[in-house]
Design brief:
Elements: H1 2-15, E1 35-40, E2 45-50, E3 57-66, E4 69-81, E5 84-93, E6 97-98, E7 104-112, E8 115-120, E9 128-134, E10 137-144, E11 147-156
Antiparallel strand pairs: 1-2, 1-11, 2-3, 3-4, 4-5, 5-6, 5-7, 7-8, 8-9, 9-10, 10-11
């Protein structure tokens, strides 16, 4: 009987979905990110378009252009999982050729007033990805194995 109980508990634990372990948060805590942002990256222009939080998620479509052509498209989705947030992102080259297999998965590390930071749950890709907003200045903070850098963008008026 005890063996069956242990087996049942193991089955429940193994089949349970992986939930975010980060600090408590909902996507409505990130409503400040909503909007259209753009900036010069030195190699061209980067645009981020964040949709309003709804239904437990929010998403951004990102486009990088240079020399008159699109050189990268990225989809970012932040979802409520458990009592915290998970971020998933995927990038494509021109012609929608995937840059990597699957999505990069990141869990919430830190959340504050107009600031959020996610950390990689795997080994490949970005180590951390953060966003902050100060007035119309939207800053993307990126940490890779090679180091950290910021990408400053400016809020743009809706079309």
């Amino acid at each position: 009987m005890r063996y069956l109980l242990i087996q049942s508990i193991l089955c429940l634990v193994v089949s349970a979905p992986v939930l975010a372990d980060g600090p408590p948060a909902t996507v409505s805590d990130l409503a400040w990110m909503t909007g259209h942002y753009a900036g010069n990256t030195g190699n061209g222009t980067l645009e981020e378009n964040w949709a309003e939080p709804e239904g437990g998620s929010m998403a951004a479509l990102v486009r990088s252009t240079g020399d008159g052509a699109t050189n990268m498209i990225e989809l970012i989705v932040i979802e409520e999982e458990g009592s915290s947030l998970m971020l998933r992102l995927k990038q494509w080259d021109p012609g929608m050729a995937p840059r990597a297999e699957g999505f990069q998965v990141m869990e919430l590390l830190e959340i504050g007033n107009n600031k959020v930071v996610f950390k990689n749950v795997g080994e490949d890709g970005l180590q951390q990805l953060g966003y902050s907003l100060d007035g119309d200045q939207f800053t993307i903070s990126v940490t890779t194995a090679q180091g950290a850098f910021d990408i400053p963008l400016t809020r743009r008026a809706a079309h």
